[in-house]
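If you are new to this repository, start here. Below is one unmodified record pulled from the training split, so you can see the exact layout before writing a loader.
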Amino acid sequence: MSLIVGVEVGSPAARAGLKTGDILVSAAGRPVRDVLDYRFYTYDARLTLVVRDAAGAERTVTLRKGEGEDLGLTFETYLMDNQRACENQCLFCFIDQLPPGLRRSLYFKDDDARLSFLLGQYITLTNLAPDEFQRILAQRISPLHISVHATDPDLRVRLVGHPAAGACLSMMQTLAARGIQMHAQVVVCPGLNDGAALARTLDDLSALFPAVGDVSVVPVGLTRWREGLYPLRPFHRDEAAQTVALVRDKAAALRRATGLGVVYAADELYLLAGLPLPGEEDYDGYPQLENGVGLMASFAAEFDAALDALPDSVPAPPPVTVATGLAAAPFLRGLLDKLSERVPGLVWDVVAAPNRLFGDRVDVAGLLCGRDLIAALDGHVTGARVLLPASMLRHGGDVFLDDLTPADLAQAIGAAVDIVPVDGGAFAAAVLGV
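And here is the target side for that same chain:
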């Protein structure tokens, strides 16, 4: 049952007389537990609802609408239910490595199958009750995003820290047999689930193709806040190179068999290995872009397309500073070198900000906080503008991880701060002041 907090004017719900303050009890004769039930049971064109008003009186409402058309209702929460918390004790959990003093919401560990389907968040399948798993099958809730890490049952139990973790592969086989599409990720920890264990995992997952359409292989992220946690270590250069080679060999065999690479190493593994990044043709449309797989190739292709579209003569804009993490700085300098060849007189600088909050092992731009940027940019701003990637800010673009705002940063460094979408074309336009 869910409290209605808004009814869209002119919507099917409004025409049927539903009001703010009503409670949706059931649809199509079935209880509405959450947003998945709501979407599934309100799909048909002719629909019967049971609604309870503020006084507790129930009434039955019959309405007509377009098939698949939303009723036009807003509920107290997006899920129409509480968010499911993670029950695992993963050896590599990034949230366990957060420093104290950040905003409270950052410490919540979610593991909610509904968000896997609706928002693409990765789940482990360990907290799915049998009836919830059966609902996924019955309602064909697809696609799902699954954190696998290892398909060997004993190894996965060790990695995830949950007695139910060993059932992952069998559950995925059941999902595949019922036509549920899946995206998978593997966080690789050197000495634990790399090497032969990773080879087995990739073989097991690729055997489920096309239901498992893509698999990302991502290196473990380690901060300086690991006191009392399992003694993980970062990849050595040669280990990263071996892991990339393993993934590429598997991908080459899969490409010959299926026409797609299916398994992909994250950009960070290539950087750790000191290897050149593949071209965009190796990423099959970037199905794992949100996991950092092909992000640089995509960005470079967008940037090059923007350069090709430039007129023959482009006036040099005012000098500009680009702030980023240690990992992306050499890459961005290379792109700006190319832009300088097309725009004589272009003056720019790329400032690579060390991550003082999480530690030097964390070198991605998205985990820099406002104070990291203030420290790195103080006295090192070229021109009057600083460009930052939107990935540094909370969704919506208002605050950094430490709750400082772009306005706070601008005041501290004495320069305008422009937030740029993570898109190579938008980056080129921002540098040129367009």
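Two things worth knowing about this chain: The chain is about 30% helix and 15% strand. The longest strand covers residues 212-219.
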